[in-house]
C-alpha cells in the first residue's frame, strides 16, 4: 500500500517558513495548493492505521530534522531531510549526503527566485524517486528532461511564471499520480503538452498558452478536474463549447476573457475574473450558472455595469474591487 503523505509535517514547514524574518516569501498560493493536495492524499490512506500512527510519531518527534531551508551558505544537506525549500537560485555548491534519497518535497517559495541549474534538476530527478511535490515556480528552464517521467509518485508540479519555456514534452503526461499541474504565467509556452488526457488524476490545472483553441478533447477527459486557472491567454477565443468538465467547481480567469464558455458553466461554484482590461460588461454565459456560490471580480478598470439578475439564491459571496468605472465598489456577502 502506498505511503501516506506527512501532511502534518508540511504544516510545520509552512509555519517555519512564515516566520517574521521571511515576510517577503510568497507562500500563500503555492502552499494552499500543497496543503490541499497532500491532505487529500493522506485522507485516502487513513484506513491504514499503522502507517498513520507512524506518520503521527514522525510529526511529533522529528519535525525539525526533516525540513530545511536551503541557501548558499549551507555546505551539506543531511540524509534524513524529507522537505527542502530553496530560497536562492544559484546553489551549485551544495553537497548532498550520499544517503539522501527520501525527499518528498522541493519548494521555491521566494517570489522571483527559481531554479536555473539543469544539473541540480537532473540530480533531483535521479535521486528523489519518491518525490511528491516539485515546485519549479520562477525557474528559467527552457525545457524539462524526459526523465521527469520517472517520478512516479509526483502529485504536484509547478512551472508558474517560467518565462523561458516554450514547449513541454509529453513525458509529464506519464505522471499518472499527478494532481496539480501549474503552467500559468509561462508566457512563452506555445502549446500545451500532448497527451494531456493521460493525466487522469489531475484536479488542478493552470494554463498560459499562445493557442487560440485549447486541446479541449484532451482536457475534457480530465474527469477529476476541479480547479482551472487560465491566465494571459490573449489569443484564446472560447472555452469548452460542446464539451463538459463534470467536476469543475472553480474557474479563475486572469488577463483572459473568452467570449464563450458553455461546457461546464452549470457546475461552477466559484468564479474569479482578474485584471481583464477589456471587460466592460459581464459575459452572457455568466447568467447561466445556477450553482455559482462565489463571484470575485478584481482590477477590471473598464467594467461599467453589472446585470440586474446577478443575485441568485445560491450566491453566497460577491466581491468586486478595483473597478473604478463602476459607480461604487461592491463587496456583498449574502
From TrEMBL:
Keywords: Plant defense, Repeat. The keyword Nucleotide-binding does not apply. InterPro entries: LRR_dom_sf, LRR_R13L4/SHOC2-like. Gene3D superfamilies: Ribonuclease Inhibitor (3.80.10.10). It holds the Pfam family LRR_14. GO terms for biological process: defense response. Residues 126-297 form the Disease resistance R13L4/SHOC-2-like LRR domain. This is Disease resistance R13L4/SHOC-2-like LRR domain-containing protein. It comes from Arachis hypogaea (Peanut).
Amino acid at each position: 500500500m502506498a505511503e501516506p503523505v506527512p501532511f502534518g509535517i508540511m504544516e510545520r514547514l509552512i509555519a517555519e517558513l512564515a516566520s517574521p524574518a521571511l515576510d517577503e516569501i510568497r507562500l500563500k498560493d503555492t502552499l494552499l495548493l500543497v496543503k490541499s493536495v497532500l491532505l487529500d492524499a493522506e485522507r485516502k490512506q487513513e484506513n491504514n492505521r499503522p502507517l498513520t500512527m507512524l506518520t503521527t510519531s514522525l510529526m511529533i518527534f522529528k519535525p525539525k530534522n526533516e525540513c530545511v531551508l536551503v541557501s548558499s551558505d549551507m555546505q551539506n544537506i543531511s540524509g534524513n531531510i524529507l522537505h527542502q525549500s530553496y530560497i536562492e537560485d544559484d546553489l551549485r555548491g551544495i553537497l548532498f549526503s550520499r544517503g539522501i534519497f527520501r525527499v518528498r518535497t522541493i519548494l521555491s517559495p521566494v517570489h522571483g527566485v527559481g531554479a536555473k541549474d539543469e544539473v541540480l534538476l537532473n540530480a533531483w530527478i535521479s535521486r528523489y524517486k519518491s518525490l511528491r511535490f516539485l515546485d519549479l515556480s520562477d525557474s528559467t528552464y527552457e525545457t524539462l528532461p524526459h526523465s521527469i517521467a520517472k517520478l512516479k509518485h509526483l502529485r504536484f508540479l509547478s512551472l508558474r511564471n517560467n518565462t523561458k519555456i516554450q514547449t513541454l514534452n509529453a513525458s509529464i503526461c506519464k505522471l499518472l499520480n499527478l494532481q496539480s499541474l501549474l503552467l500559468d504565467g509561462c508566457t512563452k509556452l506555445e502549446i500545451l503538452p500532448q497527451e494531456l488526457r493521460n493525466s487522469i488524476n489531475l484536479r488542478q490545472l493552470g494554463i498560459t498558452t499562445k493557442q487560440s483553441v485549447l486541446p479541449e478533447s484532451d482536457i475534457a477527459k480530465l474527469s477529476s478536474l476541479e480547479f482551472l486557472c487560465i491566465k494571459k491567454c490573449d489569443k484564446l477565443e472560447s472555452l469548452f463549447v460542446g464539451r463538459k468538465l463534470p467536476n469543475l467547481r472553480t474557474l479563475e480567469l486572469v488577463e483572459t476573457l473568452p467570449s464563450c464558455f458553455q461546457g461546464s458553466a452549470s457546475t461552477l461554484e466559484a468564479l474569479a475574473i482578474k485584471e481583464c482590461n477589456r471587460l466592460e460588461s459581464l459575459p452572457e454565459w455568466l447568467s447561466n450558472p445556477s450553482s455559482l456560490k462565489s463571484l470575485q471580480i478584481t482590477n477590471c478598470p473598464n467594467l461599467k455595469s453589472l446585470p440586474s439578475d446577478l443575485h441568485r439564491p445560491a450566491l453566497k459571496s460577491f466581491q468586486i474591487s478595483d473597478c473604478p468605472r463602476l459607480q461604487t465598489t461592491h463587496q456583498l456577502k449574502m
